[in-house]
Design goal:
By secondary structure, the protein is of the alpha/beta class. The chain is built from 15 helices and 19 strands. β10 and β11 form a beta hairpin. α14 runs antiparallel to α15.
C-alpha cells in the first residue's frame, strides 16, 4: 500500500483525509498521463454519498483541465464502471465510492483500460504528483481543453449485459433485494424485473447520508426478517457500490461469500467447467469451506485479503472463480472485478438449474464458529507488530491447535486491526479474541 492508496483506492473521511483538492489533482494527473500521445477519455461513476457529487466535479475539472474528456455515468456501480471501461475503449475508469464505509467517508477507485485495478506503478506516480514531487503539469488550452459527456447510456448497456447472462427466466421466483441505499438502487430492481422475478426491494431510497446505514451486506438483519416475513425464495444484499453480495436463504440464514464459492464452485465442477478444478479464496475463508472443498474433490488457493489479490491470482493462473467471505465474488469469464448483481444472477442460475433452495445447496458445508472484531487503533502497523501482541497471538494459536485458527491483520482501508478466531464453539472464539484485544487495550493502542 502507498501513502494515499490502499488495497481498494484512496479512501478516507471526505474533505478530511480525502479532499476535493486531492480529487482535482488525481484528475489532472490522469488526464495528462493518458493523454500524452492521444486524446484521453475517462469514464466516471459514483455512489450515493453526499460528497460523491463534489468529487465527481473535482475529478472532471482536473481531467478536462488536462485535456481529457470525462464521461459521466452518474450514480452507478463499481462493476458497471469496470465493464464500460474495458468494453468501450476508455483509457481508464474512476469510481467514487467508499464501498461499505459510512456516508462521511468516500474514496477514489481507479481502473485501467482492461477494467482491472490500476497498476501499482501508475499509483506510485499519482502519489508522487500529489506530494509535489513531479512539479507542475501543463494545462490544456484552446481547443485542447476537455469536456464532460453525459453517459447514462453506458450504464444502460451494462444492465443489458447483466440480463444477457441469465440463462433462465425468473418467473415464479420471489426475490428480495437490499440495495443499502447505494449504487444498486439505480440498477438491481430493473434487472430482476426484466428477468421475470417478483421483486421486493428495501433500502433503495438514498438521501446522501443513509448509505450502508444499518442495511446492506454489512447489516443483514433487515433482509433476513424481510425474506421470512414475506415468504421469499431468496434475498440478496449489496454494499454501497454493489461490488459485493451476500445472500439470504428461504429460512432467513445468511449465505456468505464462502458458501457462495462452494455453491457455484461445485456447480461448475459437476458440469466440467471449473478451470483447473480450483477456487481462489483469501486467508479469511472459513475452515469449514476448505473441509467441504476437500470432500468435493475441489482444490483451492489462498491469497491476502482483497479482491485485487484474488483477481491477480486468478489472472496469473487461469482460475475462473474466486472471492472473499465478505461477498466480493469474481467470475473471470464475465467480469474483472467483484460484481454483486452478477453474483445474484449466478446464484439464481444454480437454484433454478438444480431445482434446489439455497439452504439445500449450502447444506454440505459446516461452518466453524467465527468471531471477528475490528479494533480502531492509533497506528495499525505498530499495533499489529507490537511484541506483546504477537506473544498473545502465539499463545492463542497454541491453545487452538488443529481445531481452530487465529488471524490478526491490518485493514487495507481503515485505521483498524482485525482480530479473527475460528474454533469449535463460539465461546472459545470470544474468549481467545478478547485475549488479543485486551493486550491492544493495555498497550494503549485502542481509540475510543
Amino acid at each position: 500500500m502507498g501513502k494515499y492508496f490502499g488495497t481498494d483506492g484512496f479512501r478516507g473521511e471526505a474533505n478530511v483525509v480525502l479532499t476535493v483538492e486531492h480529487a482535482y489533482k488525481v484528475g489532472r494527473f490522469l488526464g495528462w498521463y493518458y493523454g500524452r500521445e492521444h486524446k484521453c477519455n475517462v469514464v466516471i461513476g459514483k455512489d450515493t454519498r453526499r460528497s460523491s457529487y463534489m468529487f465527481e466535479y473535482a475529478l472532471a475539472s482536473g481531467l478536462t483541465a488536462s485535456g481529457a474528456d470525462a464521461y459521466l455515468l452518474h450514480v452507478t456501480t463499481t462493476p458497471s464502471v469496470s465493464y464500460v471501461t474495458r468494453t468501450e475503449d476508455f483509457d481508464c475508469g474512476i469510481m467514487i465510492s467508499a464501498s461499505h464505509n459510512p456516508y462521511y467517508d468516500n474514496g477514489i477507485k481507479i481502473l485501467n483500460s482492461k477494467g482491472e485495478k490500476l497498476e501499482d506503478s501508475v499509483i506510485e506516480k499519482i502519489e508522487q504528483y500529489l506530494d509535489g514531487a513531479m512539479g507542475e503539469i501543463p494545462f490544456a488550452t484552446g481547443e485542447h481543453i476537455g469536456r464532460t459527456v453525459d453517459y447514462v447510456a453506458g450504464r444502460n448497456r451494462y444492465m443489458g449485459y447483466l440480463m444477457s447472462l441469465a440463462i433462465h427466466s425468473y418467473k415464479g421466483m420471489k426475490v428480495g433485494l437490499d440495495c443499502a441505499n447505494g449504487s444498486s438502487s439505480a440498477i438491481a430492481k430493473s434487472v430482476f424485473d426484466a428477468l421475470g422475478a417478483e421483486t421486493y426491494v428495501i433500502n433503495n431510497h438514498p438521501d446522501g447520508v443513509n448509505i450502508n446505514n444499518n442495511c446492506g451486506s454489512t447489516h443483514m438483519e433487515q433482509l433476513q426478517k424481510f425474506v421470512v416475513d414475506n415468504g421469499l425464495d431468496v434475498g440478496f444484499a449489496y454494499d454501497g457500490d454493489a461490488d459485493r453480495c451476500l445472500c439470504i436463504d428461504e429460512k432467513g440464514n445468511i449465505i456468505d461469500g464462502d458458501l457462495i464459492l462452494y455453491i457455484y464452485g461445485t456447480y461448475m465442477k459437476e458440469r466440467g467447467n471449473l478451470d483447473n478444478n480450483t477456487v481462489v479464496t483469501t486467508v479469511m475463508s472459513n475452515l469449514g469451506l476448505y473441509k467441504a472443498f476437500d470432500e468435493a474433490g475441489i482444490s483451492y488457493e489462498k491469497t491476502a485479503v482483497g479482491d485485487k489479490y484474488v483477481y491477480e491470482n486468478m489472472s496469473a493462473n487461469g482460475h475462473c472463480i474466486g472471492g472473499e467471505q465478505s461477498g466480493h465474488i469474481i467470475f473471470s469469464k464475465y467480469a474483472t472485478t467483484g460484481d454483486g448483481i452478477l453474483t445474484s444472477i449466478k446464484m439464481m442460475q444454480v437454484m433454478i438449474a438444480k431445482k434446489k433452495t439455497l439452504s439445500e445447496l449450502a447444506k454440505p458445508v459446516t461452518i466453524f464458529p467465527q468471531v471477528l472484531k475490528n479494533v480502531r487503533v492509533t497506528d495499525k502497523v505498530v499495533a499489529r507488530n507490537d511484541e506483546d501482541v504477537q506473544v498473545a497471538v502465539d499463545e492463542v494459536r497454541k491453545i487452538l491447535g488443529d481445531d481452530g485458527r487465529i488471524l490478526v491483520r491490518e485493514s487495507g482501508t481503515e485505521p483498524v486491526v482485525r482480530v479473527m478466531v475460528e474454533a469449535k464453539t463460539h465461546e472459545i472464539c470470544e474468549e481467545q479474541v478478547e485475549k488479543v484485544v485486551n493486550v491492544l487495550k493495555e498497550k494503549g493502542y485502542i481509540v475510543g
